[in-house]
What does this fold into?
Amino acid sequence: MITSFQMKAARALLGIDQRTLAELAGLSLPTIQRMEASVGTVRGVVESLTRVVDALSQAGVELIGDHARSEDGGRGVRLKEPRLPRRN
It folds into this structure.
């Protein structure tokens, strides 16, 4: 569904920290920290994973899964439209 690397890359594209992602997804900070500490595909409650994916999508990030259209055919993230101000 989503990898920890995709979560980190998506946050980097948006310029947000883990706390902000937790707020956007309606989850606790420790939940986001556990998800990002996963190796490979994030393990967790499906509802929590869905909340993160939805929050990232609404913030302007398109997650690209295996075999999805992309130039190199791999996983990654793509910025659709920035909708949140970047934090420095």
Observations:
- Residues 27 and 48 are 7 Å apart (CA to CA).
- DSSP finds four helices and two strands in the chain.
- The mean pLDDT is 84.
- The radius of gyration is 12 Å.
